[in-house]
Amino acid sequence: MTTLKKALIAALKSILRGRSFLQALFAFWISPAAVREHHVNGKAALPRMTVTEFLHDAEQGFLAPLEGEQLRRFSKKLKLQFRERLQSHAESMLPSFNHLLPSGQEKGHYLALDVGGSTLRVALVTLRGREATDRESEIVRMDTFKITPEVKKLEGMSFFDWMAVRISQVIKDDVSHCTPTAPIPMGLAWSFPVEQTSLGGGLLLGMGKGFLATSGLHGQDLGGILKFACSKQGLHVELSAIVNDGSATLLSQAYVHGQTRFGLILGTGANIAVHLPVAAFNRSKFGSRPESWFESASHVIVNTELGMFGHDILPLTRWDELLNAAHPRPDFQPMEHLLSGYYLGEIVRLALIEGIENTEIFGGVVPPSLQAPYSLDTETLSRIEADTTPDFEVALPYFAVTHPSSTKPTAADLGAIRSLATYVSQRSASLLAASIFSLWELRHETEAEYIQSEISSPTPSSARKMSFVHEAKVEHTLPRTKVAFNGSVIERYPGYRESCQGYINALVRGSEHVGQVELVPALESSILGAAVALACVGEQKEDVSAP
Ligand SMILES: *[C@@H]1O[C@H](CO)[C@@H](O)[C@H](O)[C@H]1NC(C)=O
Ligand SMILES: *[C@@H]1O[C@H](CO)[C@@H](O)[C@H](O)[C@H]1NC(C)=O
């Protein structure tokens, strides 16, 4: 068949897909030289659409539904979902036991641990107070221990014994003068599920990620386990604060910036911790905790589990549907799929494969290394977006090595991937901005509702209630809310942070509430957050014992 004849047939076919015959024919006449030999399933074929058309279609799918006021409308729907789950939901909008934000006056030396999927970190942290500008908090000593596959396989107590030896190694010299009657308080950043029973108490739940530490210890108190393991090393410790990564990020920055009310994680996973009034929740959400907790808590740090939101309100493309359908837990974390670094590459891969099969991208040949699910990682997208040279001088060789193929990738091919990466990362940044904005409005609304309900309450206010209302008024008029962030995507993905801040600013400008919302980096957020949480406990204890 002559190429022209093929073009005519393709043009006729395209009519069936709603594209005009002339448009299709023009596409051929305008760039006949651009028609590279195209393969589908190994057979030569003519691309069904131009790259430009394909990318335009993708852009429409990813970004058009969130343009202009639509993003605000989305944030309103999301706010309703947040509100519903303040009333009841077992797995999201979870109030922690942290009800105190640091005053910035906490001072002292603290032992902090950070247990993540691949490292254990043990640190001694000195807090000097907010007025010690740029030296507010300092990690005086920190040792990092790799959690190797062998360590992960340590069953039950053996894992905690391993931890205790490491802790002892780091602090032995400092504590040799301590008497056994005064336990050393510890703060712990724990990146695994835990059922907290108090600020320093938590029942061990399955850790996942290949760990066997919970075997035989499931449901037991983490503090008790650590205490026992450390006692075998001659260390007398007490676990006084457990924080998750979001709370840790919030607390670590709140110590430095008094107006920090959000902790944001956006790396492989996505999550937000936010500070909300206790009155916004259905009491049942707090589980069983002592009345004394409620007597001292006007506000609480909440683990939103943001990833679990967004069902039925997210604008999904066919590629999102494909990802979800192939997922081991479809619909479990709808928002996570559109936000987090774990999925950005996969969405681009799914769109790219459709592009390759229908246009001249990669000459119609899917590189074998891109056929497997999750084979295009966010790091690669980040490198392609970062390369602003016209010929992708840096990204092209990198891509050619990481994804070898019989067809050599061209700058135009990388340009197409970059376009897809931009749509997907911009969509993530705008949805993240909408999530933050929505929670910021929720803070305003729930503070106002609480103040109103107290004012109109017929029972006279106690001194405690009056101080709670005062606190709510301070929160309601906070001029410059800070969102402390941590995570590879928001820290390093080219343009992501700036773009997200831009979307936030536009949403805040159009809000009926007044204020500013600013993203700020949280340095060493886990370790410092654990130390700050511990310092806040010290304050609480002093409060209690004060006459
Ligand atoms: C508060 O929680 C209880 C227990 O889950 C539930 O029965 C009740 O409907 C909730 N209240 C509201 C207003 O949703
Ligand atoms: C984010 O948190 C991790 C773990 O605490 C830390 O290693 C990293 O430095 C943090 N990012 C920033 C910008 O501090």
UniProtKB/TrEMBL annotation:
Query: Which InterPro entries does this chain map to?
Result: ATPase_NBD (IPR043129), Hexokinase (IPR001312), Hexokinase_C (IPR022673), Hexokinase_N (IPR022672)
| Molecular function GO terms recorded | ATP binding; D-glucose binding; fructokinase activity; glucokinase activity; mannokinase activity
What Pfam families does the annotation carry? Hexokinase_1, Hexokinase_2
Q: Where is the Hexokinase N-terminal domain?
A: 66-255
Record field: transmembrane: none
Q: Name one GO biological process term.
A: mannose metabolic process
Annotated Hexokinase C-terminal domain ranges read 262-536
The protein's enzyme class: transferase
Give the EC number(s) listed in the UniProt record: 2.7.1.-
Entry keyword annotation includes Cell division: no
- The organism's superkingdom is given as Eukaryota
One GO location term (cellular component): cytosol
- PROSITE patterns in the record, alphabetically? HEXOKINASE_2
Alphabetically sorted, this entry's keywords are: ATP-binding, Glycolysis, Kinase, Nucleotide-binding, Transferase
Q: Which family does it belong to?
A: Belongs to the hexokinase family.
What's the protein called, per UniProt? Phosphotransferase
Q: Recite the lineage of the species.
A: Eukaryota, Fungi, Dikarya, Ascomycota, Pezizomycotina
